[in-house]
Amino acid sequence: MAGANLYQAFEPGFAAGASAVAFEAVDGTPLLTFAALSTAVARFANALEALGVTPGDRVTMQIDKSLGAIVLYLAVLKTGAVLNPLNSAYTAAEVEYFIADAAPALVVTSSEKAETMEPIARRHGSAHVTLDGLSAGSLARKAAGRPPDHETCARRPDDLAGLLYTSGTTGHPKGAMLSHGNLLSNASTLRNVWAFARDDVLLHALPVFHVHGLYVALNTAFLGAHRIIWLERFDTADVLRVLPRATIFMGIPTYYTRLLADERFDSAAWRTIRLLISGSAPLLPETHAAVF
């Protein structure tokens, strides 16, 4: 089964909803339509290939949450490469461990970290580029001049799509290998269990360097080409401001405790929300009772 690239599962929805808003800002401003998202992904995919990235290569990403990070994620999928997302708070020594272990073809960091990270990448035989949001940094500049279309690389279900490292609490972090089949099965199953409907809108406030924010939240939304209200970080006031425009919110337990501490978080604040998800850590019974 060669047509198992996860990105191919997103493409029909992106094409059918080309003029619809894919990402929306806190103030309601449209950030990207699905057509604009698809074009950006194609340009980035062409840029990755121009940098020598081939199917199966690892691409290490250590940048702040931004639409640029999401376009890069999708472009890596589209080229058949393997994304290795890292926490933007990791130190240079920590990043060097991951680069040495993952042996990426390309390392993508913010411009402010370039002076530190470029020598590390070079030391381990990896190319290095920068990305600051969607339109700044050397990778974005290279992508801007590339063609706006790109044929998605054929993949098998067991081909790798992601390489995420464990926390390393009992030893050195270990790379967890996630295939296209793994991620598609996970997203499809969750969509069915959570009964995603055509008009669902996801409020996204999670980081995108781990499974919950990157794969659970985004992949489930991308499969149905759902609109995403985009927060680059969790902020209680911003979440309360946009909750009435959303139907689904995914968070971690501390998000809910912070919301509960605000007197504005009442039944009226989340009247449009039909699905609240808590993950990444155990939710205390008393927090669950207070929220739900």
- Largest sheet composition: 6 strands, mixed
* N- to C-terminal distance: 43 Å
- Biggest sheet, spatial arrangement of strands: 2-1-10-9-11-12
CATH class of the largest domain: Alpha Beta
The CATH topology name of the largest domain reads Rossmann fold
Helical proportion, percent range: 40-55%
Q: Unreliable stretches, pLDDT < 50, 5 or more residues?
A: none
Q: So how many helices?
A: 11
Order of helices and strands: HEEHEHEHEHEHEEHEHEHEHEH
Q: Could you tell me the radius of gyration in angstroms?
A: 19 Å
Indicate the CATH architecture of the largest domain.
3-Layer(aba) Sandwich
Topology overview:
Elements: H1 6-16, E1 21-24, E2 30-33, H2 34-50, E3 58-62, H3 67-79, E4 82-85, H4 92-102, E5 106-109, H5 114-123, E6 127-130, H6 138-144, E7 160-165, E8 175-179, H7 180-193, E9 201-204, H8 211-223, E10 227-230, H9 236-242, E11 248-251, H10 253-260, E12 275-278, H11 285-291
Parallel strand pairs: 1-10, 3-4, 3-5, 5-6, 9-10, 9-11, 11-12
Antiparallel strand pairs: 1-2, 7-8
Helix pairs in contact: 2-3, 2-6, 4-5, 7-8
